[in-house]
């Protein structure tokens, strides 16, 4: 019973961390909202014009902590050995990526909507497969039918730009965007916001800003960039958002490993798909096998707590050490708990403090609290 309680105590803060990950939020805008926003928008624009241009806030850098057993690879004795090691590492990485993608393909064919969406992104961007817009739209269409919001938005984009054997149709694109936005697609909110801002009408701009804010809260990078520019230049400035955006290049910025990891988090919380801890572990394993630190941290946490997989603290610590060595905050936090309790590793209060401080600096509140408590204890 004590051990079970310990596992649950370890899991609760992790749930808080996972809850902080971006979630889909539907946006509802009535005619009254438009009127209110339009009136407020004029005043906001006047104030924004008076503001000095502000630099974007600096992203906190996670401090590096030296971890026993997780030291960097030893340098090769000579160039020949270095070249051989690099070649072997590249081959192993390719094999891991191929095997993971093969599993995603199988899942997509079996009807997994997250795998279908990811397969669409792969064909769209030409990663792991030859680029094929027609295949991309077909996989997005399947995922859209099953309720994937961003897949619906991408189908709308196909109609907006006329690719993937879809006729160019702004009306059909807007219809798809609106449906996707109601289902919680940040991408749809951005695409609708771009179209609205282009009219250069105060009311449309105000609604567009609201859409950008909603998308930014969900973690959309384009929306964050647009809001920064609006903050610098004010809503009176004519900013033609999206004019030079290449959506294919934008999609390429997100690695497949990140998409696998997010799919696992969705399964953990029951977003888009039924809640399934075992499924979340399977997704994280696909990304972790490719040395993706965020997935290694989540997978390590799953093994540490026994959520979705048979508990294995040794395997958990090995994964957490690997991820923490790459400065992954969740891994540093969980590893700090292991060193504080002496689970698998030798108890080391000083190292636990350093790990908590590093994770706290990256924004994990409980890690900061743990560090403060340890310092008070001395």
Keywords:
378 residues, mainly alpha, Serine Threonine Protein Phosphatase 5, Tetratricopeptide repeat, 2 domains, 69% helix, Sel1_AlgK
Order of helices and strands: HHHHHHHHHHHHHHHHHH
Strand content: under 5%
Helix content: 55-70%
Number of strands: 0
- Low-pLDDT runs of 5+ residues are 22-59
Number of helices: 18
- Tell the overall outline: globular
User: What would CATH call the architecture of the largest domain?
Assistant: Alpha Horseshoe
Would you kindly provide a written description of the structure presented here, covering whatever features stand out?
Keywords: Signal. The protein is an all-alpha fold. It folds into two domains: 185 residues, Tetratricopeptide repeat domain (Serine Threonine Protein Phosphatase 5, Tetratricopeptide repeat); 122 residues, Serine Threonine Protein Phosphatase 5, Tetratricopeptide repeat, CATH 1.25.40.10. Helix content is 69%, strand content 0%. It contains 18 helices and no strands. About 10% of the residues have low confidence.
